[in-house]
């Protein structure tokens, strides 16, 4: 895995535009919660929420007696809320994925984190701390790869380049713009064709060439399950292991691979809001979540890779997450300012 540069500030207007710029309130009652010795945080839904509450929140509450209020919602809403309520945060501890995690760092929302406050940072691989300018730390990560129908593809894919295989014409699904994996798809398409984060023109030339191969641009895991499950699509590019193994575990003839060039990465990270009412409790919670036993229990439950290098995941999880050396990270700070223009260009040149 290549080193990831620390990110630098960008134009705030561009960031707000990329985030949505919508003033919102979540109505969490944070001052009262803080007075009661609790904290307000966020959590993704579905199986992630179930495993997170079971393996992180509930054990922490039992051990400390503190109340953790975890709110569902969209990550863009959480980020916008943090921007709007910067002086008096409603959310003490944000959990964010890419690209919102990097937007938060660029906007300087989080306070610096340190080993003095969070001792288990010592056991976290530096890449999961340094890339956030030490203002955040990743809890877990997954890899983006390719899922395909073993019974339908004439030749199994092994490379990102195989998405352009003429034999797959009309049978490929990839993320629609703005969906998870879409920015990664643009970047890998550029890198495969001589481009970079600074030069994404080759990506759009390649994506226009991919368009005849695309059966449908997916908008979520449900689309992937329906398209691959029915055989309407044979190959799904730029998906995490979760939808693919949902089908595999249900008995569908699906296989999931991490391409030879490397797995693009998804990670969930913690950001303690500046001016948080109970920062010390947030640090304690993060330290708990990063401890070896909690990392092992949670990551085995949700099927993700731990960021604590001492954590040992079981064989089932190990087979479904990428090896650390096979990860392919890129410089989000170069992509985020371009997102609005990239979305417009996608809709003009790539979308149906």
Fold blueprint:
Layout: H1 12-19, H2 30-35, E1 39-42, H3 46-64, E2 68-71, H4 75-84, E3 93-97, H5 100-106, H6 127-130, E4 137-149, E5 172-175, H7 182-191, H8 201-210, E6 214-218, H9 221-230, E7 235-239, H10 241-249, E8 254-257, E9 263-272, H11 279-289, H12 292-302, E10 305-306, H13 315-320, E11 327-328, H14 332-335, H15 339-349
Helix pairs in contact: 3-12, 7-8, 9-10
Short description:
The chain is α/β, with parallel strands linked by helices and 352 residues long. The protein is built from 15 helices and 11 strands.
Written account of the structure:
InterPro entries: SBP (IPR006059), Sperm_putr-bd (IPR001188), TAT_signal (IPR006311). One of its GO terms (biological process) is polyamine transport. Keywords: Periplasm, Signal. One of its GO terms (cellular component) is outer membrane-bounded periplasmic space. GO terms for molecular function: polyamine binding; thiamine binding; thiamine pyrophosphate binding. It is globular, with a radius of gyration of 20 Å. The protein has 2 domains: 35-141 and 267-324, D-Maltodextrin-Binding Protein, domain 2 (3-Layer(aba) Sandwich); 142-265 and 331-350, Periplasmic binding protein-like II (D-Maltodextrin-Binding Protein, domain 2), CATH 3.40.190.10. Strands 3, 4, 5, 6, 7, 8, 9, 10 and 11 form a 9-stranded mixed beta sheet that branches. It has a two-stranded parallel ribbon with strand order 1-2. The protein has 352 residues and is an alpha/beta fold. Mean pLDDT is 92; it is low at 9-13 and 15-24. Strand 1 (39-42), helix 3 and strand 2 (68-71) form a beta-alpha-beta unit. It is built from 15 helices and 11 strands. It has helices at 12-19, 30-35, 46-64, 75-84, 100-106, 127-130, 182-191, 201-210, 221-230, 241-249, 279-289, 292-302, 315-320, 332-335, 339-349, and strands spanning 39-42, 68-71, 93-97, 137-149, 172-175, 214-218, 235-239, 254-257, 263-272, 305-306, 327-328.
